[in-house]
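Bench notes, afternoon.
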Amino acid sequence: MQSQGHTPTPVVRIVKLRSKQISTLLRCFLIASLVGLAAGPAFAGNKRVVKKSAATPRSYKAKAAKKVRAAPVRAKSTLRQGRALRAAQSKIRTPKRTAASKADGIAKATKSKTLVAKQTTRPRTSKASKSNKGFRLRDGVREFQQEFDGDRSEVLASQAADKHISKVMRHSERNGQYHIVSDLHWGKGRLGKGKGAKWDPQEDFRKSESFSKFVGQIAKSKRNVSLVIGGDWLELMEHVDANAPIGDVKDRITKIIEGHSIETKALTSAVTNHGLRLVYLAGNHDVHLVDARVRDHLVSELARVGGVPANKRGKLAERVGYSGHGAVLGRFGEGMVVHGHAQDASNNWRSVLNPYNAKRELQSNLGWNIVARLYRSIEKRSPEIDNIGKSSTKSVAKKIFSSPRHIASALGVVWSLLGQTRHFGRAGKLSEKLDDRRTMRAWEARTGFAEKMRNPIPGAKPNKQVTFARTIESIYQGAPSPLHETMRTPSRIVNFLVTLFSARRSMQQVKNSEPTLLSRMTGELTNVRYVVWGHNHKEAVVTGNSAKGELGHYNTGTWTKVESEWRLNVVSGRTNGDGRLKMDGVFRTELATGKPTLPNSYDKSLARPVPGWQ
């Protein structure tokens, strides 16, 4: 055995080796932990940057470096900070850009721009989409305009007035005399021939002999006489539906003229033999007269029943003329005759000259529906119901509640009235407005209204407008809106509420509608000083003064029975040699002689128009 220089056993060597390795590993662990502690936040940030860089691959280096620079470094040595920074940057790897990642990046970028645009700017309709809408609207209007039978402009012009109306009206412009009557309401008339024949129970006009004597009296005058019937000459509302075929309307006119043969013979004789001119307007009870075919049939029936010889029928046609919504009196247009239903929300239409909708269907207003579906049956049982004046509404209501059948029919009428009125969208509405405007311009051209207004009378403000159609339309737009136009929704409950609100508003407007219309006509139409109308069967006179002379409103009353009295009202006026017009007032025709006489008193219920009146 060797006692000196002892050699360690293998086990000891292994232990020593392991102890060295362990100490080395501990040193390395301490150094790595210090480096990891210093660079830990940077590595965490780098991982986040790399994760985000897939969405934005082009800017990943800049963002990663920014994160690393911003990360807090806890190492004490500046050298260690630099090492940590380089170590962090070296760990960043560039992700491979595939086609899918490119597409995904572009999509996300586009989406972000769109969101920003929505937050900062309003959405705008492109010019192309606007033009497409304009083309569609124009095409829609064209479709509606093709609903006309024949030439469109000629149809609208024939609605406005007859071609020869200015020639008919020229007869009394100098040294002339005008007699204006309204609301004759010729119905079925007599049931047989001769004076002894019985009247139809529903007939409202029964003073045929007084009318014949009146026409004979005025026709014998030395002046140039014109008889103007200011609407509601024929009673079509009680016998024909608004949308009835034209054949039915013609048949009813034939029966009306045959039932009033005595009056017809006196009228045609005065026209053909004594030079009387007959001018008539359309009212709410005979609105079918806007159709030229109906008017042609009326004139032919007047000639047939009146016994006019064949060689004089042409003369009759020349001396009888239709003047649309209004007749212009005097050389300078100082007088205007209108029917007056434009101020009645239940009996008016959208336009005074064009009661048709976009489909060329004659619209049935609220008053026409009530008469057609309820009033006819009541009047058959009580013919006098509409001739008792102020109490007629109460009497009708009493008749309605007198029997369950009338109550049921009244409820049915209300239910049907609340149904949706036919409307045709924006294109249809625009088409209707175009027709309304063209019809009013045609009336202005055929009656010569604009020419008369451009020749001002003393005291009137000169107005060189090319056309007055828009002024007249503006005046009528101030009238109450038609109640049937408010029923636009499919819901009857909504229609009922809207109509109830509109009716209340219309009743408030009606209180001042007549004086407002009068003041606007005399104020905005250059030469107009007198306005004559009827419709409400109430005779009335209101006069005033202005810079251009005397102003006046004259209500023509009616020739039907009112409160057990036959007033047979006539408004008269005359022109001098220069063509200036002067109104004489409202008269009542004597039953025995047919001579117009001044009544003792007038209805004072009409409010005085302001401003412009003294």
